[in-house]
């Protein structure tokens, strides 16, 4: 059966037919070398973070000993340049642009190593974000200390706004630490977003005051041309633009919620989507946004879906009190699965609700093989998801491993090993919990199979 290209979006009802049962293999503990474990740990994210922070640390040391003349006159530019880069690495529009350049620039001609390198860079730009954010904060502290040491010639208002700006930026940066973000999501959002906005406002004040007070004469100057030529001003302009752009696409949209089981809510939205995209949704306009993978049969489809597994208060409320509308940004952001369009043949393996991030790739591309491992899949996820799989993916292009029917989890590495050879895959994309992700990623790295897994920012 070829993939469906219907523009309609009727809920499919034909039940999912699982792959023929096979004898459950033994699951020996994989042997992984220390070198492989180190390569897995010291991934591109950490490499980016290390390079950027060390480079900036060298710059700060050189500035402190008087060997960095540019920093003496442009400390503000070094602060805001780093912060602007950090913002760009989390901006939906800029990342979609990077993915578009990589996909259309590489997929036709590039050797596999170029595609793998580009995918790794795109997946791990969070390392650039974190590195630049930490570096920008360090440069800001250095600048505030520098002007404080010149308090005899510096205006009190400039020093005060510098201290306030630094305080806001430090709080915003600390709130984004993984422990806070993963364990106290609402605390992270309140501080990182709202304190960050206050920090942006304070930055504007700091830039304007710092560039209009002349420490040589001890007077305020009203030189518009000098202000327009200040690097700090334009960094602040672009920071503001890229922070604001995604919020201009914010909309309250209708949603239909299907509850196939107490563990899952299936959200149905209007409009078809490309594969590999994720969307953020909330019940309010500015608070508690959560990201979920998007399932769609294509751009011409009449709708797209999100699978929301019950894991916290927000997702539990989707089941207990289904909304009629939710807030979302119409500008969706690209997950690493979006890069699958670069490759000729690949494997998309997922567990449980990870099917929400994986399914679109296999629906929209006949060259991708689906492996889905989960418990009581049809009963848990319902006829809509079963129908999307059954109507769009041929039986020879998928393995559906129901752990309840097959008596437990499979040897995931054996599944991947066999499929890699029989399918002739170039790459594997993994969406799983941390334990499953690490097991498969380490196994693939040990055996030389190119794989990209779920990334938890460090």
Task: Give a written overview of the molecule.
It contains 17 helices and 15 strands. The chain is α/β, with parallel strands linked by helices and 458 residues long. It folds into three domains: 43-248, no CATH class; 250-334, Translation factors (Elongation Factor Tu (Ef-tu), domain 3); 339-452, 3-Layer(aba) Sandwich (Rossmann fold), CATH 3.40.50. The strands form three sheets. Strands 3, 4, 5, 6, 7, 8, 9 and 10 form an eight-stranded antiparallel sheet that branches. A five-stranded parallel sheet has the order 13-12-11-14-15, sandwiched between helices. β12 (368-374), α15 (377-392) and β13 (398-402) form a beta-alpha-beta unit. It is globular, with a radius of gyration of 25 Å. Mean pLDDT is 89; it is low at 1-7 and 21-25.
Quick summary:
By secondary structure, the protein is α/β, with parallel strands linked by helices. The chain contains 17 helices and 15 strands.
């Amino acid at each position: 059966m070829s993939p469906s290209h219907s523009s309609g979006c009727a809920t499919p009802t034909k039940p999912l037919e699982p792959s023929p049962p096979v004898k459950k293999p033994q699951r020996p503990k994989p042997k992984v070398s220390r070198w492989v474990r180190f390569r897995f740990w010291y991934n591109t994210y950490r490499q980016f973070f290390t390079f950027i922070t060390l480079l900036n640390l060298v710059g700060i040391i050189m500035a402190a000993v008087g060997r960095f003349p540019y920093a003496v006159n442009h400390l503000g530019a070094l602060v805001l340049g780093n912060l602007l880069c950090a913002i760009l690495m989390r901006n939906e529009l800029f990342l979609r642009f990077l993915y578009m350049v990589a996909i259309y620039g590489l997929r036709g001609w590039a050797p596999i190593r170029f595609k793998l390198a580009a995918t790794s860079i795109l997946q791990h730009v969070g390392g650039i974000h974190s590195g630049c954010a930490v570096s920008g904060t360090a440069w800001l502290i250095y600048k505030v200390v520098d002007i404080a040491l010149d308090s005899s010639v510096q205006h009190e208002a400039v020093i005060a706004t510098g201290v306030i700006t630094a305080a806001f930026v430090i709080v915003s940066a600390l709130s984004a630490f993984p422990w806070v973000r993963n364990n106290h999501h609402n605390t992270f959002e309140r501080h990182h977003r709202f304190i960050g906005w206050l920090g942006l406002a304070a930055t504007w004040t700091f830039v304007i005051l710092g560039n209009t007070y002349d420490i040589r004469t001890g007077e305020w100057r009203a030189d518009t041309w000098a202000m327009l030529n200040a690097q700090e001003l334009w960094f602040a302009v672009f920071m503001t633009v890229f922070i604001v752009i995604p919020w201009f696409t914010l909309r309250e949209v209708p949603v239909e919620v299907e509850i196939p089981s107490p563990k899952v809510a299936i959200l149905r939205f209007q409009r078809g989507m490309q594969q590999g995209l994720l969307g953020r949704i909330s019940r309010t306009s500015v608070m508690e946004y959560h990201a979920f993978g998007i399932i769609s049969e294509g751009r011409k489809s009449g709708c797209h879906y999100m699978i929301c597994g019950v894991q916290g208060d927000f997702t539990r409320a989707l089941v207990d009190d289904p909304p009629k509308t939710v807030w979302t940004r119409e500008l969706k952001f690209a997950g690493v699965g979006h890069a699958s369009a670069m490759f000729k043949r690949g494997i998309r393996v997922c567990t449980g609700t990870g099917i929400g991030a994986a399914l679109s790739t296999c629906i929209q591309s006949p060259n991708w093989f689906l492996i889905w491992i989960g418990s009581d899949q049809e009963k848990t996820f319902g006829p809509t998801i079963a129908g999307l799989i059954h109507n769009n993916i041929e039986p020879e292009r998928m393995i559906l491993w129901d752990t309840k029917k097959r008596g437990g989890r499979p040897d995931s590495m054996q599944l991947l090993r066999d499929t890699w050879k029989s399918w002739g895959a170039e790459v594997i994309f993994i969406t799983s919990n941390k334990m499953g992700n690490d097991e498969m990623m380490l196994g693939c790295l040990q055996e030389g199979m190119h794989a990209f897994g779920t990334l938890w920012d460090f």
